[in-house]
Amino acid sequence: MKSSANPKQPDISVAECGYSRVLEIISNKWTALVIYAMENGSIRYGEMNRIIVGISKKMLTQTVRKLERDGVVQRHITPTVPPAVEYSLTPLGETLLQPMSELRQWGRIHFSHVETARENYDKTNKKDAQSKERS
To answer: pTM for the full model?
Structure first.
């Protein structure tokens, strides 16, 4: 008989799960792209804004500030006129490159399967919805 004196609790609570806390850092779609922009070293704000297609200046600013607060990105200001601002990954930020690279690779290999599954699901559920409407 199993002892219930010390039951093992699952680590799936949003407040307690370390994984969910990590997702808070990287789950924004722009965060991953900003980190990818810095994977080869320092990059100026303007260059980052040009290479990340679709990001607004406001969203880029919010994203790099959040990553800076989280200790993932560091900002370096060169006192020129106008000031040159460069961003780079901190040593902590660099530790995200491998797992994020693996996620990117997974997406390249498997996302077509996800799209096919979505299409199949939508077709099946559309048929089910139409059958219910006729009933």
So the answer is: 0.74
